[in-house]
Amino acid sequence: MSHQAHTVAVRATGVDMFFGTPENQVVALKQADFEARRGELIMLVGPSGCGKTTLLSVIAGTLTPQAGTVEVFGQRLDGLGQEELTSFRRKNLGFVFQSFNLIPTLSVVENVMVPLLIQGRPYDEAHARAHAIIEKVGLKGREEGRPNALSGGQQQRVAIARALVHEPPLLICDEPTSALDKDTGAHIMELVRDLSRSPERCVVVVTHDHRIFRFADRIAEMEDGRISRVVDDPKLLDTSHL
Amino acid sequence: MYRLALNMLFGDRAKLAMLLCGLAFSALLMAQQSSVFFGIMSWTYTPMVNIRAQVWVSDPMVEQVNDAKPLRDTDLGRVRSVDGVAWAAPLHTSFVQARMQDGNFKLITLVGIDADTFAGAPAVLTQGRIEDLRLPDTVIVDEWGAQLMGRTEIGRDGKPKTTPLKVGDTFEVNDIQARIVGICKVRRAFTGGPFVYTTYDRAKAYTLGARRTLSFMLVEPQKGITPAELCGRIERETGLKAWTSDTVIWSWGERSLARNTFWWFWTNTGIPFSFGTAVLLGLFVGIAISGQTFYSFILENLKYFAAIKAMGAGMGVIARMLFVQAFTAGLIGFGLGAGMAQAIGRAMIEKGMPPFVMFPQILWATFALVLGISFVSAVIGIIKVSRVDAASVFRG
Questions:
Q1: Per the CB 3.0–4.6 Å rule, which of A42, A239, B221, B234 could disulfide with B242?
Q2: Are residues B312 and A63, on separate chains, in Cβ contact within 8 Å?
Q3: Do B4 and A117 touch (CB under 8 A)?
Q4: Residue of B266, B392, B325, B297 whose CA lies nearest to B1
Q5: Does residue B264 lie within any of the structural domains?
Q6: What residues contact residue A182 under an 8 Å CB cut-off, 6+ apart?
Q7: pLDDT at residue B378 greater than cutoff 60
Q8: Are residues B220 and B302 in the same domain?
Q9: Is A103 within 8 Å of B304 when comparing Cβ atoms?
Q10: Domain shared by B227 and B326, yes or no
């Protein structure tokens, strides 16, 4: 196995994704190629409708592409059945959503426990691990409160704790700062970067928010359903259309 | 995940309250209406309960206990001669008008029992002695009858006040005096008239001119012979119909007069249809309210279920979560509804309105139906969640 194969966390090659009927087809991804490395935080940026979320869904295994191959940490996703994809997500993925998606009727600690319980871990073990990571994200003392009693930034911290509690190799963040103000957004991204900084982990962030580009190791720009270019320095990007 | 599923359910108090209201109301309606129905239906075979005998013998055409077809007195001798009969006593039952002291008329159930053996006499006398029935023109009246047939006067406050009949009071049946020598405690009957006990011979006198007055014969089997076995012998040897006194209406015993009476009323009256409609209404209301509430609970949580799916929960786990939620709500709803039905039943019995019999089978059936409602609600939710695309969590 080559050195490159060891460093690649996510590789999507020639991915096509269409929606709608053959007569009324919407092209979301067209021959899209994407690569993310282990230990890096890569951002997917681009104008609305360019296919960012669709590519993220394909990488996450929640959408199956019509063509192309997707490989995540050496596991080919194309060709897997629904049950295998579900199992793959359970073990390998952590999610941070735009609107947090914290269950309002559960306490903070219970929300964080969800991925562990889905994995079938015992309740007490899940409880202890959730407590530990809540402390790491700076919310000690808020464990038993409801998410609605927290500020937007605090809720996103809970979401990050939930995404990382089961130590997934791939962290998927969908517009993690869009509901937050500038400072809170920056704090959240610092947290994501710090907690996910590991040679065995990869973070893919979809965002419109150019204020957080500086947290990226690389930025992949999308246009018309494909990656148009990848840059190491955010200053090289033209953000006027984002 | 089940603990979290329950916390999700209990976390939304308003939704939970509405869900429980729907299920509890449904359980209450089904259990209460069924209990009143079976209460009323159990009154149809009240004579079997109040007039106790192991074997009843009747005309072959008799279908139920309230429809006596008179026998010849000589039939009594034929039955007594059947091998295995310890004793056989005559019984008269009929509905007659009683004329009260104040000129008012009341319909009564006249029961004439054998003066020698007192076979068929009431089990509990609250006043008087059964032996006093051997005195001339005497009767024993049941407690409810004593109240119903009592003297009503306008009190000082302008309100009518009824003074119940007591031992020593009199009334008339077909212009013949009936003097009360005892008050008994018996179960009320579907036909409504109070039970008035007298001797068989006096009952004949009260029913002036009737050619045949023998309604039933009460028979005791000899030791070692079962009632069903004796019934078979009596039928073979006399051509009459013999019944057991078994009042378990759920049994398939063909010889149970109570069971035949119950099912006669079931088949020949509109009572089951009327109450059945109310029970069905309870079921539909339950499905509608609970299903709708649970569905809206699912809708409100849909994006969270989608997130849970995206995080790697299979539909099996989610389905089990929804079943746990639905069945827990069903269990609590059933408990509340059945508890309220019990409380209403107790209040009815305490107020002297006792057509309320809550068989264990009613509770089991209500429990099963409420769980059925929960099951339907859960399945509706599962279908909804199964159609949610896990990728939808990325669409804001």
A1: B234
A2: no
A3: yes
A4: B325
A5: no
A6: A211
A7: yes
A8: no
A9: yes
A10: no
**Pick among A17, A19, A56, A62 to test the B interface (most B CBs inside 10 A):** A62
> Does the distance separating the beta carbons of B311 and A114 come in below 8 Å?
yes
CA B123, CA B172: separation in Å to the nearest integer?
25
Q: What is the pLDDT of residue B251?
A: 64
What percentage of chain A has pLDDT greater than the value 70?
Answer: 93
Report the residue of chain A nearest B5, measured CA to CA. Answer: A106
* Domain presence at residue A31: no
What digits encode the pLDDT tens for the residues B347-359? 887 776 667 888 8
Distance in angstroms (rounded) separating the CA atoms of residues A123 and A136: 20
Chain B partners of A99 at a C-beta cutoff of 8 Å?
A: 303, 396
Q: Is A32 contained in some domain?
A: no
**CATH number of the domain encompassing residue A195:** 3.40.50.300
Nearest chain A Cα distance for residue B16, angstroms: 12
Domains of chain B: total: 2
**Using 50, 70 and 90 to split pLDDT, how confident is the model at B211?**
confident
Report pLDDT for A242: 54
Residue where the block lists tokens 């050496």: A74
Question: Are B53 and B219 in contact, with CB atoms under 8 Å apart?
Answer: yes
Query: What is the percent of chain B with per-residue pLDDT over 70, rounded to a whole number?
Result: 96
How many other CB atoms sit within 10 Å of the CB of residue B395? 13
Total domain count, chain A: 1
Q: Clarify whether residues B94 and B209 are in a common domain.
A: yes
Query: Nearest residue on chain A to B309, judged by CA atoms?
Result: A86
Owning domain of residue B191:
47-246
Chain B nearest CA to A30, separation (Å): 19
**Percent of chain A beyond pLDDT 90?**
12
Kindly report the nearest CA distance between residue A218 and chain B, in angstroms: 22
pLDDT at A5: 47
Cα separation values, B104 from A163, B162, B237, B312, Å: 86, 13, 47, 81
Query: What's the ipTM?
Result: 0.81
| Residue B105 main-chain phi, psi, to 5 deg | -110, 140
Same domain, B337 and B318: yes
pLDDT tens per residue across span A122-179: 989 999 999 988 888 788 888 888 998 888 888 888 888 898 888 889 988 888 887 7
How many whole angstroms separate alpha carbon A1 and alpha carbon A195? 29
Q: B-side interface with A, Cβ within 8 Å?
A: 1, 3-4, 7-12, 301, 303-304, 307-314, 317, 389-391, 393-396
Burial A44-76 (b: 16+ CB within 10 A, else e): bbbeeebbbbbbbbbbbbbbbbeebebbbbeee
The rounded Cα B217 to chain-centroid distance in angstroms is: 26
Chain B's closest residue to A111, CA to CA, is: B4
Q: Which residue of B has its CA nearest to A89?
A: B312
